[in-house]
């Protein structure tokens, strides 16, 4: 059995909801591995609200559907200006609430409180951190369908704004606004159905990222300074990464999230372009692309806090279809992709920094 498979088996033998006993056992296993390769290891407990992570996405879907029905009522009555005002004000409120819930509310809301623990390991004085999350979750809607549905909701809102502007100049056919309301409802249904469960062992998401991180550190020379952050509650609003970002100064990091045996490796970013990290990794890696709306990774929370961060994934569309489902198990993952990514990453981190032109996003 390969070293990657050993790690995967130890971590992904059962679903690991944040704060659960299986997650604690996985964290203890990782702590033992990291101590064995010369790291100083510490647990960092934190408190957070489960509300944004559990209900933020379904409430967004319900809110955009209600908003569109309010606008459609005004638009069908011939009040294009009122429909536009409703859409603009509603979108602004949703954006502000979502931004606050995601960045601050997940830690500050006084209800639905819970506790969990991040695992932090250092070797030397790290200038670079490797990040992955230990917890897992399930949802009835695959992550790819959810992302497409969220994009569709935003597109329909944009079309409705255009229609309301046009209605202030010309009359609209009577079926336009009901059609928009129905389209928004259909797009919002998968979003509203994205409730959190605990039926996925999370082999791909994100035992594979944790195993890749462990294998990378195992392959690095012992004198290589490195930091390791294994977060909890990533699946509940990136709570662990948000908590760590509040107490730790901004740094540079590589977040590994979703490493399949098949498919290509991808670098993904949010926030500012990770130019220095891209240059350090070298030309053998693809240029970083932007994160798809509706998909969250710990790198988002760290980028919001001023980190230079890049997310690494490996796979394809079939990979995405397994995430957050019961089929995200060890029967669909042998660890060859973990070994491939870890070797590539360890080689890049030990090679001299190439003196090449920065690769821009």
Task: Walk me through what this model shows.
- By secondary structure, the chain is an alpha/beta fold.
- It is 51% helix and 16% strand.
- The chain contains 12 helices and 8 strands.
- It has helices at 3-11, 21-36, 51-76, 80-108, 143-167, 176-192, 203-219, 239-247, 275-281, 298-304, 317-322, 336-350; strands spanning 40-49, 113-123, 128-133, 226-231, 252-259, 264-269, 289-290, 308-315.
- Strands 1-2-4-3-5-8-6-7 form an 8-stranded mixed β-sheet, with helices on both faces.
- α9 links the parallel β6 (264-269) and β7 (289-290).
- α3 (51-76) packs parallel to α5 (143-167) and α7 (203-219) packs across α12 (336-350).
- The longest helix has 29 residues, at 80-108.
- Residues 355-361 have low confidence and may be disordered.
Radius of gyration: 22 Å
Unreliable spans are 355-361
Instruction: Output the helix-strand order.
Output: HHEHHEEHHHEHEEHEHEHH
Largest sheet: spatial strand order:
1-2-4-3-5-8-6-7
Please describe the biggest sheet, giving its number of strands, its sense, and whether it closes into a barrel.
Answer: 8 strands, mixed
The secondary-structure class comes to alpha/beta
Shape: elongated
How many helical stretches? 12
Share in helix = 40-55%
Head-to-tail CA distance between termini: 38 Å
Number of strands: 8
Question: Descriptors for this entry?
Answer:
361 residues; 12 helices; alpha/beta; 8-stranded mixed beta sheet
């Amino acid at each position: 059995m390969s070293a990657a498979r050993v790690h995967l088996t130890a971590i992904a033998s059962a679903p690991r909801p944040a704060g659960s006993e299986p997650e604690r056992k996985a964290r203890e296993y990782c702590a033992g591995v990291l101590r064995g390769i010369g790291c100083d290891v510490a647990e960092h407990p934190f408190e957070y609200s489960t509300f944004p992570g559990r209900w933020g996405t379904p409430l967004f879907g319900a809110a955009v559907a209600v908003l569109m029905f309010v606008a459609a009522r005004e638009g069908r009555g011939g009040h294009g200006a009122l429909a536009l005002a409703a859409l603009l004000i509603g979108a602004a409120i949703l954006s502000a609430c979502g931004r606050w819930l995601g960045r601050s509310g997940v830690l500050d809301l006084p209800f639905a409180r819970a506790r969990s623990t991040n695992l932090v390991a250092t070797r030397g004085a790290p200038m670079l951190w490797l990040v992955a999350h230990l917890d897992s979750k399930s949802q009835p809607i695959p992550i790819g369908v959810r992302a497409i549905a969220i994009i569709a909701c935003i597109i329909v809102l944009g079309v409705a704004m255009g229609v309301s502007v046009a209605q202030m100049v010309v009359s609209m056919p009577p079926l336009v606004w009901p059609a928009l309301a129905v389209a928004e409802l259909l797009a919002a249904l998968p979003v509203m159905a994205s409730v959190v469960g605990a039926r996925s062992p999370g082999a791909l998401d994100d035992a594979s990222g944790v195993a890749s991180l462990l294998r990378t550190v195992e392959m690095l020379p012992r004198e290589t300074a490195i930091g390791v952050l294994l977060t909890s509650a990533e699946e509940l609003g990136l709570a662990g990464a948000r908590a760590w970002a509040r107490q730790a100064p901004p740094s540079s990091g590589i977040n590994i999230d979703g490493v399949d045996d098949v498919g290509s490796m991808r670098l993904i970013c949010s926030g500012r372009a990770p130019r220095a990290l891209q240059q350090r990794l070298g030309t053998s890696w693809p240029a970083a692309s932007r994160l798809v709306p509706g998909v969250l990774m710990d790198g988002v929370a760290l980028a919001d806090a001023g980190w230079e961060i890049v997310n690494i994934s490996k796979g394809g569309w079939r990979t995405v279809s397994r995430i957050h489902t019961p089929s995200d198990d060890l029967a669909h993952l042998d660890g060859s992709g973990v070994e491939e990514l870890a070797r590539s990453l360890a080689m890049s981190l030990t090679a001299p920094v190439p003196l090449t032109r920065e690769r821009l996003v």
